[in-house]
Design a protein that fits this description.
The protein is an all-alpha fold and 295 residues long. It has 12 helices and no strands. The chain is globular and about 65 Å long. 39% of the residues are buried.
Amino acid sequence: ASSYATTAVGAWDWAEGQPIPGWHETIESVRSWAAAELFRLTGEAGYHDAFLEATPFASGIQDQLGCRGFGPCDAGFVYARTDHAGVDESLRQTVLDSFEAHGDRVIATTTRTTAYEWAQDNQWFPESWGMAPSVPNAVGLLRAHALSGEPAYLDGAVRAASFALGGNPQDMTFMTGLGHECPRNPLIVDMRNAGLPPWPGVTLFGIHDIRNLEPDNWMLVYFIDPAGTYPSVWSGEWPIVEAFFDLFTVPPLSEFTMTQTIGPATNAYRYLAAAPRRADEREGKAPGNPSPPVY
């Protein structure tokens, strides 16, 4: 552990000496996360100062935390669970209020307005490339629950996970090897070339709003339309929540990544698997010591 800590400090020192590139907002978000982690690790005031400098929480409550991207979600969650003497309690309360505001917004704008009660971290995201409900977009809700103990956030996460695990119009899961109907053609080239079945546990991008593609896109022309879809998925007449076709050759449907699909899905399922067993969670738990873990 000490070698990892030394490496983390060295990485911070190196990065702080580099010029800031053009994509400044992303850099600041990741910098605030690193500062929060190092402050929690070491308790050193310099990291706390860097966190204050980079975090949007210093300007007030945030209800858009970017828990599926490079937003303040990760940094805020780390800071909310830090117990060093140098923690700004007023700022930590702002972070806690922000997670509740985020959870309330997700429930109000997606969970309560969609037929299958799935969740979306940002209601303006397109339903594509892993942002669709085939991946349970529940990390923000679960972190809000972990910090507040509010049952509504856990309930919203359960509904989001239920869609991805089969409670959807296609009556299927979006994880290989799980359920009576699941993806059988993930974009795993060595599996395909060797004629092997897909290994279990891979959450795919899944549903993709095909209208984001041009009508002459190669995926439509050569693979989706020839598969016999009617009406044309590009026309807008095909329901978005049914826009998954188990085609190896169409990356927006069959591909996956650790950060966009496997990680968010695993975090959601592991939390939900543990949550009902914890009486202290059902009764509410003081901020700063959430259980079960969410990363």
